[in-house]
Amino acid sequence: MPFFDLSGKTAVVTGVSGGLGRGIAVGLAEAGADLVCISQSEGGNATARTIEEIGRRAVFIQADLSVETALPDIAGRAIEVFGRVDILVNNAGIIRRRPAADHAAEDWHDVIALNMNSVFFLSQLIGRHMLQRGSGKIINIASMLSFQGGINVPGYTASKHAVAGITKALANEWAGRGVQVNAIAPGYMATDNTAALRADEARSRSIVERIPAGRWGTPEDLKGPAIFLASSASDYISGHVLCVDGGWMTR
Ligand code: NAD
After folding, report:
1. Has 236 been annotated as catalytic?
2. Is 190 in a helix, a strand, or coil?
3. What's the pLDDT at 1?
């Protein structure tokens, strides 16, 4: 299916040291893309090596994306690696769990800096490069909490509502200039991000009972949707937030 073929494309994926980002990066590589992998922790290097084993080119950049002033340099380095970026996946994200009444300002600001600010500024920096070339795909990783309020995670909820808003705002400005901006909203996925939820047996059971698919999602579940939104198969899709949630939102 040439529609889904990413051969010759270069992709930047953030937060690839494990979890969903690693799954997405490996999926894009399996579809043919070369990868620039960005992560704060060294685990991103292992993901880059896995991608090389698949037969694609991969470079790891270790960086803290929550430092706003560092983003122009990081974006510049990411573009320089292969000379161009066709696909950007803003996946890196953190969560801090504490009730709203006790939520620390530091937790709020840390979450907003990475989950919201880095998504906008990286999209802006790499988006400018895409606009100059007249083509590109940006995929932001949203959440069920782009639609719902959640419990004990007010900063995270605010940041993920913002991710949906940024996706739509950029999509409106850039769709006519060859750059499609969309988002994937994963449901409840088994990664470090949800380790605390899964460790709580009662909470974990009540979550699974509400998921029509009857199971937690996995990084593998995001491969197909990411390839779709990164490929020419989705050229007329703009500003969409695609739920990949085993049916959670429809229940
Ligand atoms: P994870 O904790 O397994 O991975 C997070 C990744 O982000 C890691 O690679 C980590 O190194 C990187 N990272 C963290 N802080 C960083 C920083 N300051 N700079 C650069 N990289 C940094 O989490 P995950 O579950 O794979 O989450 C990935 C994305 O998916 C996040 O945006 C998260 O909010 C979102 N998400 C997850 C779920 C879920 O159920 N797991 C559901 C909805 C959305």
Report:
1. no
2. coil
3. 74
